[in-house]
Amino acid sequence: MERCGSMTYASALSTSEQAEPAGPAFFYCFVGFLLLAPLDRAGNRPLPLLLLELAAIGFLFVIIAVHRAPLALPRLLTLAIALLLVYPLVQLIPLPGTLWRMLPGNAEYATVLERFAAPGASDVWRPMSIIPVKTEYGWLALLPALACLLAAMRLSTLHAARLLVVMVAFTGAESLLGLVQYGMGVASIFNPRDSVAHRVATGTFINKDHFAAMLAMMLPVIVSVLLYSLRTEVGSSQRRVVLESSAVARQLLLFGCAVLMLLCLVFTRSRTGIALVLVALVASAIVLKRADVASHGDKRMRVAGIVVTALIALTAILAIVIGVEPVVGGFEPGTLRAGGETRLEFYLATLRAAIDFLPFGSGLSTFAYVFPRFQTGDPGLAIDYAHNDYLQALLELGVVAPLIIGLLLVEYAIRMARLLRDSGANRFTSLQLGAGLGLLPMILHSVFDFPLHMPANAMWFATLAGILFRSSTGEKSANC
Questions:
Q1: E strands, 53-107, where?
Q2: Which pLDDT score is estimated for 290?
Q3: Which of 82, 250, 356, 447 has its CA 20 to 30 A from that of 406?
Q4: Per-residue pLDDT at 476
Q5: What is the pLDDT of residue 27?
């Protein structure tokens, strides 16, 4: 049985690696691509974003040109990606001036043109997008996330597992940086120059909430990677002895990263991020249960439950020792009420704007230029984002936005349900479930903020999605 298992696994791994473009070089370049994205303000500046877009074009070219095996994208996911890529380009197609003035939401702009523009300017052909250059900018910003999705789906099983370990280790390093920032205060050289001047952990991000969203996203991944490392392959006792020391070191690394992440999440002082830790922990419990079922009741899986419990307890103790008074202050009823009222004003104003521009939308990435027309409250307050990615998408893309979001969520639910009920699950299934459950905190966080507008978050989110939707052909036979 051992011989059969080894040969079958080697055969499956060889087939999977043959489908990987450019072999190991592709994997190492992809790792560099992912790890460089968060280093300069999460890629949320023109120059780092431009470099990420250029690299993404290179990855997309390799994935398309080196076509060693078909890329099995689910149908609903394919349709959603197609709509997301094509519709903003449709918004850039010039329309006759008469037709442009008739578009919903354009009446006020047409009035301004007729009153102040040069004679005949109101009849110039114009795109559907209110600010075409911003729509073009937003469309190009989609390319890094698209490249990450497709590249992750192209990785071999071995490389996909290694990639998750690298991402976990990097997140642990980011968490350590965040704790140093909190401990040394706002004057620390470790704080970004243009970060908000408060005593919080932000890592290499500018916004503490977006940093917290990344940490919450990676927590279920850490649990799934830990389970993956606990389940050794069937083999000789000599092989298990050789692997034991490296396995223990890897598990200690994972445990240490998880402690750092949970502790850093507390000191981001992000109310939404801290609340989403509960979602992440529930998701992790699902991964534990699924892994236990896949291992047919293996008692070793109980160790993972003990480790997670110890992790939570140790994090709570360390947080109390460091001091959580500033964090607790953010959850006072008055603070929560004020923040909730402000967000509600944003949401209602965004919804009014979205209705005004239905069904076509104002154009991708045009929110900051359209919103002032509908803004209530302090008119001097500049609002660049709706603090709700779904409402902002409705404003910018019109009726296409809920269609895209609905397709993505349905395909996500279908894939997760299929993995959970798969009685012939393999070791890699636990990693796919961890990646899928890691998407959930970010999906929920997008209801209250705009974390996916950060290129690094979008790229890591797309990478986890790629691992979730990655084909498992040939994996089950690896357990024979």
A1: 94-95
A2: 59
A3: 356
A4: 43
A5: 92
Cα separations in angstroms, 192 against 49, 164, 176, 449, 468: 17, 27, 15, 21, 33
Distances (CA, A) of 385 to 26, 144, 217, 377: 35, 20, 21, 16
CA pair distance 122, 118, nearest whole angstrom: 8
Structure tokens at 403: 């269609």
DSSP 8-state assignment for residue 118: P
What averages of pLDDT result for each successive group of 10 residues across the chain (480 residues)? 38 49 84 93 89 94 76 89 96 91 89 79 86 95 96 90 92 90 69 60 87 90 79 47 61 79 83 78 68 51 57 60 51 54 85 94 94 81 88 96 96 90 68 90 92 95 94 47
In a domain, 388, yes or no: yes
Residue 101 within any structural domain of the chain: no
Looking only at the bridges linking them, the beta strands covering 126-127 and 94-95 are: antiparallel
Write the DSSP symbol of residue 44: -
Distance CA 447, CA 444 (A): 6
The whole-angstrom separation of Cα 24 and Cα 156 is 10
User: 10 Å Cβ neighbour count for 337?
Assistant: 10
Q: Which tokens sit at 456?
A: 């690094």
Range of the domain at 467: 2-93+128-340+378-479
Q: Is residue 68 part of a domain?
A: yes
Q: What's the CA angle centered on 433, arms 455 and 247, to 5 degrees?
A: 95
Q: Which residues pair with 425 in a beta bridge?
A: none
Q: What does the pLDDT read at residue 335? A: 52
Give the separation between CA 462 and CA 150, rounded to whole angstroms: 9
How many structural domains are present in the chain?
1
Angstrom distance (rounded) from CA 26 to CA 66 = 11
Beta bridge partners of 94: 127
What single DSSP character describes residue 1? -
- Please report whether residue 357 resides in a domain: no
Q: Report the distance separating Cα 475 and Cα 269, nearest Å.
A: 42
Helix (H, G, I), strand (E, B) or coil at 416: helix
Cα dist from 225 to 64, 148, 191, 230, 431, whole Å: 30, 20, 30, 9, 6
CB atoms within 10 A of CB 247: 14
Place of tokens 């709509």: 83
- Cross-strand pairs, 126: 95
